[in-house]
């Protein structure tokens, strides 16, 4: 029975990433790009207040999507989404703003 339980746990992990994974929360963000690190796909963004998440500040964000990262230019302004999952966060759905 022990091996069955291990198998079941393994299946759960593979199939569902298991129930442990926290839900992804989305926050709308507006900001200006101040620095880009293409190698690590990290953008430093001077962002405005992000409702229910954080005050205005300049900080680094990972931009997971290659196509999103390609839209970024130093000095460019964007509207985007900050995705938050537990301790993890990243930026996506990037649109350039005026
Ligand atoms: Cu911040």
Topology at a glance:
Blueprint (H helix, E strand, L loop, with lengths): L1 H15 L8 E13 L4 E6 L9 E6 L3 H5 L6 E9 L2 E10 L1
The structure holds copper (II) ion.
Task: Please give a structural write-up.
The chain has helices at residues 2-16, 66-70, and strands spanning 25-37, 42-47, 57-62, 77-85, 88-97. With 98 residues, it is α+β, with helices and mostly antiparallel strands. It has one domain (22-97): Copper binding periplasmic protein CusF (OB fold (Dihydrolipoamide Acetyltransferase, E2P), Beta Barrel). A five-stranded antiparallel sheet has the order 3-2-1-4-5, with no helix packed on it. The longest helix has 15 residues, at 2-16. Copper (II) ion (CU) is lined by residues 47, 54, 57, 59.
- The CATH class is Mainly Beta
Count of folded domains: 1
Integer-rounded radius of gyration: 18 Å
Q: What strand order characterises the main sheet?
A: 3-2-1-4-5
Ligands bound here? copper (II) ion
Instruction: Give the overall pLDDT as a whole number.
Output: 90
Number of strands: 5
Notable traits:
OB fold (Dihydrolipoamide Acetyltransferase, E2P), 5 strands, alpha+beta, 98 residues, binds copper (II) ion, elongated, five-stranded antiparallel beta sheet
Overview in brief:
This protein has 98 residues and is of the alpha+beta class. The chain contains two helices and five strands; from the N terminus they run H-E-E-E-H-E-E. The chain starts with a helix and ends with a strand.
């Amino acid at each position: 029975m022990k091996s069955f339980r291990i198998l079941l746990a393994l299946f759960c992990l593979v199939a569902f990433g298991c129930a442990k994974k926290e839900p992804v929360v989305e926050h709308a963000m507006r900001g200006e790009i101040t620095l880009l690190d293409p190698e690590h796909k990290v953008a430093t963004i001077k962002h405005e207040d992000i409702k229910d998440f954080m005050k205005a500040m300049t900080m680094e964000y990972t931009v997971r999507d290659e196509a999103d990262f390609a839209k970024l230019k130093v000095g460019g302004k964007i509207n985007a989404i900050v995705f938050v999952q537990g301790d993890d966060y990243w930026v996506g759905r990037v649109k350039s703003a005026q």
